[in-house]
Amino acid sequence: MVLEIPRLAIMGHPNAGKSSVVATLTENDRIAIDKRAGTTTESDVYPVVIDGQIVIEFIDTPGFQNPSAILEWFQLHGGQSDLAAAFVSAHRNNPLFAHDCALLEPVAAGAGIILVVDGSKRIKEKDRVEIELLRLTARPRMAILNNLTRQSRHLEQWQNTLSKGFNSVREFNAHRATYAERIKLLNALKSIDQRWEQRLEQTIDAFERDWERRTDQAATTILDLLREALAFRYTESVKNNKLVFQSGRDQVKAEVMAAFEDGLRTLEIKAQEQIRANFHHNVWNVSADSILGRDLLSEDVNKTLGISKRQLAMVGMATGAASGAAIDLVAAGSSLGAAAFLGAAAGGMLGLMGGTALAKLDIEKAHGTQRFTVGPVSNPRFPFVLLDRIILYSARAMNWAHGRQAADEEAPDKVPDKDLPVKGFSEALTAQQQRELARFFSAARRGKVYEREDQCRDIIKGVLRDVAESRIDSRADL
To answer: Could you tell me if residue 419 is inside a domain?
Structure first.
């Protein structure tokens, strides 16, 4: 039976990780996933919609309740042309087989089969029964070894057993599968039935076009964040009678700087929300100890991300950017003392990043008031830190499996994320790319349009494409 779109029934005995597989393949973290066995009691259809069109459907089915009885029935009725359809027709109204009929109904309607097994556990007789009865359905079928732990001693036995009854056998960790691994799995599905090959190629093309569009949208979000953050200013006018004493002046300076820093944080949060929505994340838990959970202006973030001092110096010389910036406190042309301001500033890094001021504070005297203005950002390293942070956030969003909510993150033998060096993405860029970005940053500070912004977009998209090909989400937990 040739289907208009590929439909895959996700099967397996209770608590094998079926719902996690569906959540990851459909990028749907709203799917209810419970660590307790047998929480799926009926079949639910989860379509993947791209450009308003359903390109593939995954069906989360309940676990087998009576596999031995079903296999016995199949063997007794081997002359039937379609055993799954015949069994459902014969037992639809039998309460004893209610779950089993719910499981087999999609197969009876022509769906292919993906059997999910826990490869960390030894094969039991019940598993062999399920494998055989699914073989007898004669439907296109793939088996997934959803091994979530480092336990691998049973994998070879599983591979040998499954290969006798399935067209394809794949290892797939539903808690940690990246975009690239999802695409590999979809490509492997083409081998389970030649009649599905063309339609699955169209499905994969749709996935890849959609991913490229989302990558481009992420680059737009990143560029918008950099442009808005680097041009950001905060101004507050204060009546002169509140500034009679130095303590009142210092308090205003601190409040204005804190408001400026909060404005930068707000812009980052808005961009993060857009990134999460772009990659379909609703469930999002970041540890307070991770680099993403720490304050944007914290010393830890400043030390971990951004480019090195040497690279910064080279970029500064090449672009004509200032190597540093001091806080200018100007009131009718007279200095009011940076030291007093820095001692009173609150929040973030007291206005400093790597020993250099984050932004300038100007005080302009007007009739009966003084106007305090902070910004734009003058620290030459901050844009690279901000860029690294939002790319790191995007990397997590791109590679964080939607089925991961069921993962036991404290399990001692879980499959680990790839351990990568602790450094920013911008540090790995070429000197030419760093200079290109620095020129964009300079234009953004002045509120100007950079004529080579497309080159900057390509640089950012190149980094995003690279992170989609590797398991780099572990950086977000540093």
So the answer is: yes
Contacts of 27 (CB under 8 A, 6+ apart): 48, 279, 280, 402
Radius of gyration, alpha carbons of the chain: 29
Q: Which two tokens stand for residue 167?
A: 């067209």
Say if residue 170 is in the same domain as residue 267: no
- Please report the pLDDT score of residue 34 as a whole number: 56
Q: In 276-368, at which residue ranges do the beta strands (DSSP E only) sit? A: 330-331, 334-335, 352-353, 356-357, 359-366
* pLDDT tens digit sequence for 289-343: 788 999 999 999 998 999 988 898 888 766 664 333 333 333 333 333 332 233 2
Whether 360 contacts 235, CB under 8 Å: no
DSSP for residue 414: B
Distance CA 45, CA 207 (A): 19
Mean pLDDT of the chain: 84
pLDDT digits (tens, 9 = 90+) for 341-367: 332 333 333 355 555 789 999 988 878
Give the residue among 153, 185, 146 at the shortest CA–CA distance from 168. Answer: 185
Backbone angles phi, psi at 373, to 5 degrees: -130, 130
Comparing 85 with 35, the larger pLDDT belongs to 85
Q: Cα separation of 277 and 226, whole Å? A: 19
Contact 427, 437 (CB under 8 A): no
Q: How much is the pLDDT for 1?
A: 44
Domain of residue 126 covers 7-174
Both 438 and 319 in one domain: the answer is yes
CB atoms closer than 10 angstroms to residue 441 = 25
Question: In this predicted model, what pLDDT tens digit does every residue of 14-50 receive, in sequence order?
Answer: 777 888 999 999 999 988 765 444 444 578 899 999 9
Beta-bridged to residue 472, according to DSSP, are none
66/189 Cα distance (integer angstroms): 28
- Give, rounded to a whole angstrom, the gap between the first and last alpha carbons of the chain: 50
Amino acid at 234: Y
Cross-strand pairs, 352: 357
State the pairing for strand pair 369-377/234-239. Answer: antiparallel
- Which pLDDT belongs to residue 162? 94
In this structure, what token pair is assigned to residue 277?
A: 């929505």
Q: Residue 57: give its domain's CATH number.
A: 3.40.50.300
What is the tally of helices (H) and strands (E) in the chain? 15, 13
